[in-house]
Amino acid sequence: MLFLEKKCPKGWNMFGHSCYFFSTNPGSWEEGRNDCKNRGGDLVVIDDANEQRFVSTFANKAAWIGLNDKVTEGSWKWVDETSLYLANWEEDQPDNGGGDPEWGEEDCIHVRDDNKASWNDLSCEISLFWICEKV
């Protein structure tokens, strides 16, 4: 039986069976998602603790991931339509802006630029970098 080794496109990093791209320009969550789709992937879906650790090694800037509750507040879904079962929330998060109108609706998730790449909810319109995954 012949197994072909998967190769990632230039500018992408391999981990497990996926390739990852870390944007160099910031934009909204939707802009990030569109860019990932144009590259043949989508915003990253973090499936397990190993993938979370991998992402944290590159999270030296806050970056969008593929998790949101845009359809139903508090019902977190990944871009592949799977429900949230692994979480790495920052303390006291998610908080949907704490009810403060200054923050607006916080329906999209980003990894923070801390040493564990903890998660926080923000307005999807905030300009951040993003992480794409190509399975």
From TrEMBL:
Keyword Disulfide bond: yes
Keyword Repeat in record: no
Domain C-type lectin as annotated: residue spans: 15-133
SUPFAM superfamilies in UniProt: C-type lectin-like (SSF56436)
Keywords attached to this entry: Disulfide bond, Lectin
Family matches, as InterPro entries: C-type_lectin-like (IPR001304), C-type_lectin-like/link_sf (IPR016186), C-type_lectin/snaclec_domain (IPR050111), C-type_lectin_CS (IPR018378), CD209-like_CTLD (IPR033989), CTDL_fold (IPR016187)
GO molecular function: carbohydrate binding
CDD domains membership: CLECT_DC-SIGN_like
PANTHER family found in the cross-reference section: MANNOSE, PHOSPHOLIPASE, LECTIN RECEPTOR RELATED
Name under which the protein is recorded: C-type lectin domain-containing protein
Source organism: Cyprinodon variegatus
